[in-house]
Amino acid sequence: FNRTSGWVQTSIVKLFKLKERVEALTKFIELCQLLFEFNNYNGVNEVLSGINSSPVRRLKKTWAEVSKAQLKQLEFLEKVMSHEGSYKEYREILHHCDPPTIPYLGTYL
């Protein structure tokens, strides 16, 4: 989990050009969506953790350039994977999804 999250952070923050950082951040949001569609909820949380890390969130100019559609998608994924209510929304989705799935292990630990 930590290695993937760190990889996401590093992949975004190491880029010097704004356009490259925006492209990388957008690709990771798209990756999150694909992981969600493939029922890989552990992967979704790994990537979300990297995207929502302090070093990435501090990149104000980068976030300002991300499209509204991408931000809306990210907001949806954050809401679904939120730990509020003991992962209530995530548990509901997990209960109704078709196998195979890779659950988020942090829910059970």
UniProtKB/TrEMBL annotation:
Gene3D superfamilies: Ras guanine-nucleotide exchange factors catalytic domain. One of its GO terms (molecular function) is guanyl-nucleotide exchange factor activity. Coiled coil: none annotated. Residues 1-109 form the Ras-GEF domain. Keywords: Guanine-nucleotide releasing factor. The keyword NAD does not apply. GO terms for biological process: Ras protein signal transduction. PANTHER family: CELL DIVISION CONTROL PROTEIN 25 (PTHR23113:SF368), GUANINE NUCLEOTIDE EXCHANGE FACTOR (PTHR23113). This is Ras-GEF domain-containing protein. It comes from Vannella robusta.
